[in-house]
Design a protein that fits this description.
0% strand, mainly alpha, 160 residues, single chain
């Protein structure tokens, strides 16, 4: 079996997702414990437990990315989006990790790595159907298509 080297950005995604998962795990547990200390907080506990659940998913995803040999896994845009949404709970670190993950997922080397890992083909470049598609068609603002009026410049028509 052929092993392939992970791009640096994939390793960065994996390690930052793991760190964010650990932070979210503790963040949610501390927020839930604090919320349970008050009567009103008991009703807020379902909201405060959400970062803990996200933290578990982040740790599982990061473990799949860091495994050797690599497991077939898709880029997880949903985890990155939920990390950004963690800003609503006050966790700015998870928000930064989510933004970086989304940026890194759009890198060509990362896209190529995930395509090779999952056995799918990614087109290298867009295919142009014909050269005429590249050249714009002349329009009315093109000087070659502006027609002069049939009357000469010196003559004026009488306004009656």
């Amino acid at each position: 079996m052929q092993t392939q080297q992970k791009p640096t950005l994939v390793s960065v995604i994996a390690w930052t997702t793991l760190a964010s998962g650990i932070v979210n795990l503790f963040w949610g547990l501390i927020a839930s414990g604090t919320a349970l200390a008050t009567i009103v907080g008991i009703f807020c506990t379902p909201v405060t437990i959400l970062p803990t659940i996200l933290g578990v998913f982040e740790i599982i995803y990061a473990a799949k990315l860091l495994s050797n040999p690599a497991q077939p896994v898709q880029p997880s845009n949903s985890i990155a989006i939920f990390e950004i949404a963690c800003a609503l709970t006050g966790n700015i670190f998870a928000m930064v990790v989510g933004i970086l993950a989304l940026v890194f997922y759009n890198d060509l080397t990362v896209k190529d790595y995930f395509a090779r890992l999952n056995g799918t083909l990614v087109p290298a470049a867009p295919v142009v159907s014909s050269p005429s598609a590249l050249a714009p068609e002349p329009g009315p603002s093109d000087p070659a298509h502006i027609q002069e009026s049939p009357s000469s410049e010196g003559e004026e028509t009488p306004k009656g």
